[in-house]
Design brief:
CATH architecture of the largest domain in chain A: 3-Layer(aba) Sandwich
CATH architecture of one domain in chain B: 3-Layer(aba) Sandwich
CATH class of one domain in chain B: Alpha Beta
Oligomer: heterodimer
CATH superfamily of the largest domain in chain A: CV3147-like domain
Largest interface: A-B, 46 and 44 residues
Number of domains of chain A: 2
Number of helices of chain A: 11
Number of strands of chain B: 23
Helix content of chain B: 25-40%
Structural class of chain A: alpha+beta
Order of helices and strands of chain A: EHHEEHHEHEHEEHEHEHHEEEEEEEH
CATH topology of the largest domain in chain A: CV3147-like fold
Largest sheet of chain B: 6 strands, mixed
Number of strands of chain A: 16
Radius of gyration of chain B: 25 Å
Chain lengths: 371, 513
């Protein structure tokens, strides 16, 4: 159990940026919100999943919507509390703890804000172990835990409760349309899960992993050591490629920014090319000795492909990609819970439109990285 | 004829232009009061060219005065922010994430009222007149007369910000109101920050503009004068009094615009090599490419257009060390004329290497004759690599690009650079900033989110272009000269495909008598 400090928050935001694997939204505004709350005396307590009783009730809290709108129409501030209260009202009993839905990107901070406002502990874990674009891409949904009751709340405290749904993908579709009506940003509390279910299906220790990752990056920065090495040491990942970004192609498909980039190898990768396909987050990386051809797959979803600026080690989001950047591409092994056949059906390459790509898991180091 | 003036940290430069011809130029040291330095350099320029003050049709001025005031926290007025957005936006108050000393320096107080718009223009809440008036009365009671107004999605719909301005004017006699939609882009905090910084500079702007005006009157110049904005277009003196913040970072912009003008290159890379550092920027259609990320000014995050500039530590005064070979980032800077070997000093600088290699002929070349030719060749090769790498980094696509060299350190560069299609070293490059200021163009920009369910894409584009063109005309452009120079379409991520952000920029030639 630990109390979130200002320093923790700085580190978690950095770690979450890396685990965002190119997408997930910027944690900056969430970080500022929580910093203000901490200054006002609010506290956030993070607890291990094992402290949770089997019959405890838990919900996931996060934001849904377009980051471009999120930076303009800032929240009222109470939405996370309203969302939790709505589910408690529906259940007729209080909830016991908050879970993070998505440790990658801006949704890493939302559950901490909810914890501060409700006084409920936040569990050290999440349902993705990275960032994903859609809500059914969650270890709980994959395990068959129903995502309802769920509630979508806007800044006017309009609440819409989903009490039953055929499947998580249908909830994703309905919620996203409702989110547009609510002005393209909304707070989502999804599922009321039992302690037993969460202990079985959550990806454990990802909040402390994000913090450790951020700590390591900040220490490397201060010591002027390579940040990429710090990231690899904490995540158990490996360097996939390094070179110059020479091409970025973007197109929009059904509201998602899809595209591909090409990196020309430098140093030990000279005369090689890396292609990366992305849809908000990075999806598949191919390396080969022919620029025009996709070579062999070196990493793919659900493993994490993280592109950092070679010189500074700063993660580069898919929106920031442009010709001329010197980049190092890192591969980070994902959670074991995303590597089962049932999970790969939802978050594997085929689920993102690459049925020809066979997922080959990156090797893991025992006791290191995402569990 | 037109006069361009650049008030820099060290020198005030002035250039007299007739159409596209540089008639003459003058330099003199920048003075503490700014205006006497301007009077000095203008008197020199008019005397040397023999041109009568009555022949001047317009004066254009570039200045870093307002940026420096914020950075140094001086001459700032007490400022209030009225944000229009409740029940949204309460999570983060105005001035959040500002340096504490700056908030104290401007006594920042803030009020949140109901209102604002959704991304598609629907109101979040109706404006509550009584609520705005109550806030205004408190601001007046506190003795504050500089107010910034920021409404959610005001770039989509400006009505509520304008209504609030009218209510403030009604309640607070003589109030100066800064409206966020006139200043920044989508991104509430950053736009509001820029508006608040503007508000705290308004009184200073009125004083500065007046002192410029007096300086011109003393010389008998009755022509209108304009000040350059950070996007390379001009604003009238009256507009600067309202929106001084738009002058931030106009220095590098003017330098790049001047380089484009002098070389005739509209698309290419500008390398400005100074004494300590080099700045590399990209010209797109004659204008600097924007930095797309948030930029901090005086410690405050803002999102208004800033030129995308990459700086690295190579200049004419850079220290050169052998074994291992190391060039910069340390430099003798402005002391080069005393400390470099060729000028009788004892520091080996990049300029000394250039002289030894025969690239330049300055100072006493016998003083570098002892340098090992192999070492000189290696040092020149390293400098060339540094410049080539910086150009390559800033290019927007593969392939060779035209490069324009400006600044005092251009002598470091030989005749050929890899990745460069043509190398320009324009005449008068030493006063590129002042020339950039004198290019008489005005601009207008539209940055809005369109719901494509309500407006088809083609119609949205036409609408945005027409609005941008209208804005240019309002700035005083010749109607036949108006052109669209930039169109950017950004689909909103994580949403079904029906909302897109469109940004259009138009420019036109200023109509001068």
């Amino acid at each position: 159990m630990w109390q979130i400090t200002r320093e923790d928050l700085e580190s978690i935001a950095i770690g979450a940026g890396i685990l965002g694997t190119g997408g997930g939204g910027n944690p900056y505004l969430g970080k500022l919100t929580l910093l203000s709350l901490l200054e006002e005396g609010y506290q956030v307590e993070v607890v291990d999943l094992d402290t949770l009783a089997d019959d405890a009730l838990v919900t996931e809290v996060g934001m849904m919507g377009a980051p471009t709108v999120g930076v303009e129409k800032l929240p009222h501030g109470a939405e996370p509390r309203w969302a939790v209260e709505a589910l408690e009202g529906y259940m007729g009993r209080p909830l016991d703890a908050i879970l993070c839905a998505e440790i990658g990107g801006s949704n890493s901070i939302q559950p901490l804000v909810a914890g501060a406002l409700t006084g409920k502990p936040v569990l050290d874990g999440d349902s993705m172990g990275r960032a994903f674009p859609e809500l059914q891409m969650s270890t709980h949904c994959i395990a068959g835990v129903p995502p309802v009751p769920a509630v979508l709340v806007d800044e006017k405290n309009n609440r819409v409760i989903f009490s039953a749904i055929t499947d998580p993908s249908t909830l994703e579709r309905y919620a996203r349309d409702l989110c547009v009506l609510m002005g393209c940003t909304a707070e989502l509390a999804m599922g009321v899960m039992t302690g037993a279910q969460v202990k079985r299906s959550a990806v454990r220790h990802t909040l402390s992993l994000a913090r450790r990752l951020g700590d390591a990056v900040r220490a490397a920065r201060a010591a002027k050591e390579p940040m990429a090495d710090a990231v690899l040491a904490v995540t158990g990942g490996s360097e996939l490629f390094s070179g110059k970004l020479v091409d970025v192609q973007r197109r929009t498909v059904a509201g998602f920014a899809r595209g591909e980039l090409v990196v020309e190898g430098a140093g030990q990768y000279r005369r090689q090319w890396l292609q990366v396909a992305f849809q908000n987050e990075n999806l598949v990386a191919w390396a080969g000795d022919d620029r025009g051809q996709r070579g062999r797959v070196v990493c793919s979803v659900p493993d994490l492909i993280c592109i950092v600026e070679s010189e500074t080690g700063e993660p580069i989001t898919t929106e920031q990609l442009r010709y001329g950047l010197r980049v190092t591409v890192l591969g980070i092994p994902c959670s074991d819970k995303l590597r089962t056949p049932a999970a790969l059906a939802v978050v594997g390459p085929a689920a993102f439109g690459y049925p020809e790509v066979h997922f080959v898991p990156m090797p893991k180091v025992a006791g290191v990285g995402i569990e | 004829m037109r006069i361009g003036i650049d008030v820099g940290g060290t020198n005030t430069d002035a250039v007299l232009m007739d159409g596209r011809t540089v008639v003459g130029w003058a330099k003199s040291p920048t003075t503490l009061d700014v205006s006497s330095g301007i009077t000095g350099v203008l008197a020199k320029l008019l005397f040397e060219t023999g041109v009568a003050p009555s022949a001047i049709a317009a004066v254009m001025l570039g200045t870093t005065h307002f940026t420096n005031a914020v950075v140094e926290r001086r001459s700032l007025s007490r400022t209030a922010v009225v944000r229009v957005g409740l029940p949204a936006t309460g999570a983060l108050r105005p001035f959040v994430d500002w340096p504490k000393d700056l908030v104290e320096a401007i006594g920042g107080v803030s009020y949140l009222v109901h209102g604002g718009y959704e991304f598609d223009g629907r109101p979040i809440a109706a404006l509550d007149e009584a609520e705005v008036r109550a806030a205004a009365r408190q601001i007046r009671a506190a003795g504050i007369d500089c107010v910034a107004v920021s409404a959610v999605f005001s770039p989509v719909n400006t009505d509520q910000e304008i209504q609030v301005a009218a209510l403030l004017a009604d309640e607070i006699p003589g109030v100066r109101v800064s409206l966020s939609h006139e200043i920044g882009r989508i991104g509430l905090l950053e736009r509001e920050n820029a508006a608040a910084m503007n508000a705290c500079l308004v009184h200073l702007a009125e004083r500065i503009v007046n002192s410029f005006r007096r300086a011109l009157q003393e010389l008998g110049i009755s022509a209108p004068f304009f000040i350059s904005q950070n996007d390379g277009t001009l604003m009238s003196a009256e507009f600067v009094e309202k929106y001084p913040v738009l002058t931030f970072a106009s220095g590098p912009t003017n330098s790049m615009r001047g380089a484009a003008f002098l070389s005739g290159v509209k698309d290419g890379v500008v390398v400005d090599i100074g004494g300590t550092t080099s700045d590399v920027g990209v010209l797109v259609n004659g204008f600097p490419r924007d930095a797309s990320v948030a930029v901090r000014v005086g410690g405050v995050r803002t999102n208004f257009r800033m030129p995308d500039v990459f700086s690295f530590g190579l200049g004419g005064g850079s220290h050169v060390q052998s074994d291992p070979l190391q060039i910069g980032p340390r430099s003798v800077g402005y002391e080069i004329t005393r400390r470099a070997l060729v000028f009788g000093g004892s520091d080996l600088t990049a300029s000394d290497v250039a002289v030894a290699a025969g690239l330049a002929d300055i100072g006493d070349r016998s003083r570098v004759a002892h340098l090992d030719p192999a070492f000189v060749a290696a040092a020149v090769a390293r400098m060339t690599e540094m410049i080539e790498a910086s150009i390559d980094r800033m290019k927007s696509a593969a392939g060779d690009v035209p490069v324009i060299l400006v600044g005092g350190g251009t002598l470091l560069v030989g005749d050929r650079l890899n990745g460069v299609s043509e190398l320009h070293r324009p005449e008068h490059a030493a006063v590129a900033n002042a020339i950039g200021a004198a290019i008489a163009q005005v601009g207008g920009e539209v940055d809005r989110v369109f719901s494509l369910d309500a407006t088809p894409r083609a119609q949205a584009l036409v609408q945005a272009k027409e609005e941008a063109a209208q804005r240019v005309l309002r700035e005083g452009a010749l109607p036949e000269s108006v052109e669209i120079v930039e169109v950017e379409e950004i689909p909103l991520a994580y949403l079904p495909g029906n909302a897109v952000r469109i940004r259009v920029k138009a420019v036109g030639a200023l109509a001068l008598e």
